[in-house]
Amino acid sequence: MVVLKGSVPISFGGTEQPAAYGELVSIGGLSPDVNKKLSAAIANILETKLSVPKSRYFLKFYDTKANQTQEFARCLHALHQN
Protein backbone atom coordinates (compact mmCIF):
# COMPACT_ATOMS: atom_id res chain seq x y z
CA MET A 1 0.00 0.00 0.00
CA VAL A 2 1.30 3.41 -0.90
CA VAL A 3 -0.04 6.77 0.26
CA LEU A 4 1.35 9.94 -1.26
CA LYS A 5 0.52 13.39 -0.01
CA GLY A 6 1.68 16.07 -2.38
CA SER A 7 1.71 19.81 -1.89
CA VAL A 8 2.32 19.43 1.85
CA PRO A 9 4.79 22.01 3.19
CA ILE A 10 7.88 20.28 4.57
CA SER A 11 11.04 21.75 6.02
CA PHE A 12 14.04 19.47 5.66
CA GLY A 13 17.55 20.59 6.58
CA GLY A 14 16.27 24.09 7.30
CA THR A 15 14.85 24.78 3.83
CA GLU A 16 11.60 24.15 1.99
CA GLN A 17 13.23 22.88 -1.20
CA PRO A 18 11.70 19.65 -2.59
CA ALA A 19 11.96 16.94 0.07
CA ALA A 20 10.29 13.68 1.08
CA TYR A 21 9.73 11.55 4.17
CA GLY A 22 8.58 7.95 3.88
CA GLU A 23 7.62 5.21 6.31
CA LEU A 24 7.58 1.64 5.07
CA VAL A 25 5.78 -0.79 7.35
CA SER A 26 5.63 -4.51 6.70
CA ILE A 27 4.26 -7.51 8.55
CA GLY A 28 7.32 -9.73 8.72
CA GLY A 29 8.58 -8.99 5.20
CA LEU A 30 11.55 -6.69 5.72
CA SER A 31 15.21 -7.63 5.90
CA PRO A 32 18.45 -5.80 5.12
CA ASP A 33 18.41 -7.16 1.56
CA VAL A 34 14.75 -6.27 0.97
CA ASN A 35 15.25 -2.83 2.52
CA LYS A 36 18.19 -2.18 0.19
CA LYS A 37 16.12 -3.10 -2.88
CA LEU A 38 13.14 -1.04 -1.74
CA SER A 39 15.37 1.94 -0.95
CA ALA A 40 16.94 1.82 -4.41
CA ALA A 41 13.55 1.64 -6.15
CA ILE A 42 12.05 4.45 -4.07
CA ALA A 43 15.18 6.60 -4.47
CA ASN A 44 14.95 6.21 -8.23
CA ILE A 45 11.32 7.40 -8.23
CA LEU A 46 12.01 10.31 -5.87
CA GLU A 47 15.03 11.47 -7.85
CA THR A 48 13.86 10.93 -11.44
CA LYS A 49 10.09 11.44 -11.28
CA LEU A 50 9.73 13.89 -8.40
CA SER A 51 13.09 15.75 -8.60
CA VAL A 52 13.89 15.20 -4.92
CA PRO A 53 17.69 15.08 -4.49
CA LYS A 54 19.40 12.25 -2.60
CA SER A 55 20.20 14.53 0.32
CA ARG A 56 16.56 15.66 0.74
CA TYR A 57 14.63 12.53 1.74
CA PHE A 58 14.44 10.15 4.66
CA LEU A 59 13.02 6.61 4.54
CA LYS A 60 12.04 4.76 7.70
CA PHE A 61 11.57 0.98 7.66
CA TYR A 62 9.52 -0.77 10.31
CA ASP A 63 8.89 -4.50 10.42
CA THR A 64 6.12 -5.71 12.71
CA LYS A 65 4.98 -9.20 13.59
CA ALA A 66 1.53 -10.44 12.58
CA ASN A 67 0.54 -11.14 16.20
CA GLN A 68 1.38 -7.53 17.20
CA THR A 69 -0.77 -6.23 14.35
CA GLN A 70 -3.66 -8.51 15.32
CA GLU A 71 -3.42 -7.42 18.97
CA PHE A 72 -3.45 -3.75 17.91
CA ALA A 73 -6.53 -4.39 15.76
CA ARG A 74 -8.29 -6.05 18.72
CA CYS A 75 -7.46 -3.05 20.94
CA LEU A 76 -8.86 -0.63 18.34
CA HIS A 77 -12.00 -2.76 17.97
CA ALA A 78 -12.49 -2.77 21.76
CA LEU A 79 -12.09 1.01 21.92
CA HIS A 80 -14.74 1.53 19.25
CA GLN A 81 -17.16 -0.78 21.08
CA ASN A 82 -17.22 1.46 24.17
UniProtKB/TrEMBL annotation:
GO annotation, cellular component aspect: extracellular space
Pfam assignment, any one: MIF
Top-rank taxon, per record: Eukaryota
Molecular functions (GO terms): phenylpyruvate tautomerase activity
PANTHER family assigned to the protein according to its UniProt record, in alphabetical order: D-DOPACHROME DECARBOXYLASE, TAUTOMERASE_MIF SUPERFAMILY PROTEIN
Family recorded in the similarity comment: Belongs to the MIF family.
This protein's name: Macrophage migration inhibitory factor-like protein
Upper taxonomic lineage: Eukaryota, Viridiplantae, Streptophyta, Embryophyta, Tracheophyta
